[in-house]
Amino acid sequence: MSKRFTDPLPGQMQRRRFFQGAGALAAGAGVVWLSATGSAAATPPAQPGSTGRRVAVFGGGPAGMSAALELAERGFEVDLYERHQVLGGRVRRWGIPGTGTGGRADLPAEVGPHGFWGAYQNLGESMGRIPIGGGRTILDNLLQEGELLRFVDLANAQTQMNAANLLPTVTGIVNDLAGITAADAALVTSKIAALLASGPKRKWGQLEYMSLGQFMCADRFSPNTRGALHQLTSANTEPLGRMNARAATLGMLHRWFANLIQVPYGPGMKNRATFVNGPFNETLWAPWAQHLETLGARIHTSHRMTGLSMSGGQITGATVLNASGNATAVAADWYVLAMPFDKVPEVLNPAIVAADPALGRIANLEGSWLGGPQIYLKKKHPKLIQGMIDIAGPWCLVAGNYTNQIWNRDFPNQYGDGTVVEYLTVDMAIWDAPGILYGKPAIECTIEECFEEIRAQFRQALGDDTILLDEDIHTWTFNPAITRQGGRLVNDEPEWGTTPGCWADQPEDVTTNISNLLLASPYVRTDTWVDDMDAANSVGKRAANAILGASGVSAPPAPVRSVYELIEPIYRPLWDEDDRRYAAGLPNVFDVIAPIAP
């Protein structure tokens, strides 16, 4: 029985690099579920230095935390190293030093607004096993049904996709998008339906190498339509508003749209889209870390891994630097790289890449910039009161207003100096388009110019020049990963971007040709093709399962639910028909307006 996380490229043979026993364990992960406390947690913790049980996890984001959770619950000796002062990766929260007075916490900050999709199939299961007292878990910190305005009303989505109801379903979704022009609606509907109904032959033979702009005929769209399309993906991945040559691969969007419309709620996910009811460090990562420590795991923040050593076909050690720059040697039986795609090449030496050339191709993956300013207001504005504010401007801005509808917090009395009543965190998805104020793309602006440009775009989009007045702003700060060097902005923390053709450079699995080196990051091929928390959780579990199987430990594997297996039976008749049309040189049956021929 083989494990299947994605449909392979036509003609591609899956490389069999599984550890002994890992394949069978991982294959059954979709049906084996742990109890609320984890049925393997009763295994006595391993003693320090025990052979085969020492695991070093590098990266404290959702993937690394997930791998550490599964392994610690099964009695492994886990050390987790995170280069930042706080856990969570790009979904972390930190405090702005010196802003808290009178016993209040420092003002919270983050990389940008982050939410949870109801279609998440794996993360909710892990969250439901991390206690916060009173019989509750961190899953209870998610806003429940009715507590958050949904991004797009999908109530009219059909329960079964077929040629008869796909078009009405997509038409209903497009009609829900405020701002889309009537002239564009038919084209958008045709293209989205064609994307959903495209079979594997068209996906691998064509869509994987096309940008969204090419397929959608974006040059025909009005700016309002671009902004309306942006609503569909603003909280998850590269938005549809990014209509340029390096837009997200259509193969990823094919799967993403299918998930959005069809996949039922995952474990514990009760909204199509929701948030946690407070800062991530308080509601997610702090209790997660505390639970890991009760299981015997050791967490080392402000520790950056700088290199790996290899001998005899195995990793023999790693070097980490602490906040003071002092080096420490790390020895373990298993090494898990839960680091971002752009940091992995920095720690791989030529011998490691020679042992597994697929690791060298990680350096070919491209990043996508997100993040922006954190804005703290002394005065509420009536047009900034909704939880999520989507701006149809040239930089595709999305702002989360956590102090309204989302966080269950008395913000003035808990954070800052008592005068901050609203907190906005802003994402800007397009960094290479000219702005409306200075005529420069964001990447060429100073940090101050970026803020002024963002303020101008908010005012223009919302039609109100009283938004974000100087006298209403307590303070603002920018994503610390973004700095100005050599006359341009640079980003030390991009997310992995699904660009056309990237599949060839993505590692096929979490296992490598080096027997004790594992990968646990969403750039590994997953069902969803997206750099999000659920994909991170799934690869973290897969890495843990591989170690579990190779170690011969008698414990159930971590459950990994396959999104692909949920949607494949629904769309298969449409895909089979499209495979026939593609082989005959015909466009998709729904691609009737400006069709793209094979």
Q: Could you walk me through the main structural features you see in this protein, from its secondary elements to its overall organization?
A:
- Helices cover 28% and strands 16% of the residues.
- The chain is an alpha+beta fold and 598 residues long.
- It has 17 helices and 23 strands.
- α2 runs parallel beside α10 (280-294) and α4 (166-175) packs across α5.
- The chain has helices at 22-27, 62-73, 123-127, 166-175, 182-196, 200-205, 212-216, 223-230, 250-262, 280-294, 344-347, 350-355, 357-360, 411-414, 447-462, 533-551, 563-583; strands at 54-58, 77-82, 93-95, 108-110, 116-117, 131-133, 136-137, 273-274, 298-301, 304-311, 314-321, 327-330, 334-337, 366-368, 373-377, 388-391, 397-401, 422-428, 473-478, 482-485, 488-491, 495-497, 517-519.
- β1, α2 (62-73) and β2 form a beta-alpha-beta unit.
- The strands form 8 sheets. Strands 9-2-1-13-23 form a 5-stranded parallel sheet, covered by helices on one side. Strands 16-17-18-15-19 form a 5-stranded antiparallel sheet, covered by helices on one side.
- The two termini are 35 Å apart.
- It is globular, with a radius of gyration of 24 Å.
